[in-house]
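Methods — Computational structure assignment.
A single polypeptide chain was analysed. Its primary sequence is given first, followed by the predicted tertiary structure written as structure tokens.
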Amino acid sequence: MRRPLIALGAVAVTGASVFALGRCLPLKHTARRSLEVHRPPEAVWETLTDIDRYPRWRPGLIRVERLPDERGRIRWREYESHGDVAYELVDATPPLRLVTAIADPRLPFGGSWTYEITPWPGGCTLTIVERGEIRSPLFRVVARFVTGYTAQLERYLTALGARLAEEAPGA
């Protein structure tokens, strides 16, 4: 009887420690990643703003559902195997700057993504700046020590780079 109680106590202490650590971590974070593309800014812009085609090039994205516009903003819901999230288009300056954000404040996380497209001869650089907020202390620990703040950005840019390469003339 003593061993199960010790094990239960260890689990409780570990859980409390992880929760306490998560409470000490910052609620908000900023992450930035870039991708150089040998395509014009307009081609990158078209791919970024063609919401209905996201499932064709984003691994793990099952489908996208258009939602009614709200406050003059385009909105959509993305469905993945682990759940769904509603997003909205916050600001757009074609073809150089796009800002999207999570549109559901009830989630344990939130944030915005600013896509900055900088042209150069023969292509452009896309920089994505994530300004995230992780409300759950447990999720903060996972993001900080397990997955990292940039994993999603890197996965997104890898998929986008592959999509743009396959759309390139002569590819």
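Note: The mean pLDDT is 89.
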